[in-house]
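Retry 2 of 3 after timeout on previous attempt. Resubmitting structure tokens to design endpoint.
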């Protein structure tokens, strides 16, 4: 069960009506994973319906960890948080994104939803190594993996969920899948959605990408 409305990084108080509805839905549906994003999505009570990135610093970790704890206490189970794609960086950041994500999930004692495409997109946009990022992930926390397509515009990569998973992302995924083989994998495609048969082909392509051929 994947959400986009918690605004875990926002400064507005967490919405009690939203949390109550989330708790009721979780108890009714009993999903394998409950997740949202490492981001903020609201300012002064207004929701942008987007996933805005956080500065990578101690203050953000403390703020997010306390709000994640509030959500987990309310719903009575662990929450998985997802790394987002980003297109801006903050002068107030004092650590890398992978250091930030790793420390956050440890401090909050929550799970991680690792989006490999988001890592690749952000690495391209900010000039860091996606492989270095993924080598530092606490894989014992990863309960789900997301893959998706992206597009290129004006030199940036945009996470648009509207294309096949790139070969470069699949290469990263192969290494990730070996480190957390029990994690579930979801291929996201929610823009320019092709016929169902094409979606099945993409699922099979991803499945086959992790199969090791016999010598």
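Retry 2 succeeded. Sequence:
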């Amino acid at each position: 069960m994947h959400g986009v409305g918690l605004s875990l990084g926002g400064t507005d108080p967490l919405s009690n009506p939203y949390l109550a509805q989330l708790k009721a839905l979780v108890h009714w549906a009993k999903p394998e994973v409950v997740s949202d994003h490492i981001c903020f999505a609201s300012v002064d009570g207004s929701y942008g319906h987007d996933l805005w990135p956080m500065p990578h610093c101690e203050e953000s970790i403390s703020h997010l960890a306390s709000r994640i704890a509030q959500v987990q206490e309310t719903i009575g189970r662990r929450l998985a948080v997802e790394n987002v794609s980003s297109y801006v960086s903050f002068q107030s950041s004092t650590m890398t994104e992978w250091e930030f994500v790793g420390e956050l999930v440890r401090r909050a004692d929550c799970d991680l939803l690792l989006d490999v495409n988001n890592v690749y997109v952000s690495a391209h946009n900010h000039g860091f190594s996606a492989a270095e990022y993924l080598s530092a992930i606490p894989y014992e926390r990863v309960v789900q993996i997301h893959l998706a397509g992206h597009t290129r515009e004006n030199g940036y990569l945009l996470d648009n969920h509207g294309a096949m998973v790139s070969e470069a992302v699949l290469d990263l995924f192969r290494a990730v899948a070996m480190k957390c083989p029990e994690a579930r994998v979801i291929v996201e495609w929610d823009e320019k959605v092709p016929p169902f048969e094409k979606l099945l082909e993409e699922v099979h392509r991803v499945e086959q990408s992790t199969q090791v051929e016999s010598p």
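Attempt log closed. Residues 66 and 108 are 7 Å apart (CA to CA).
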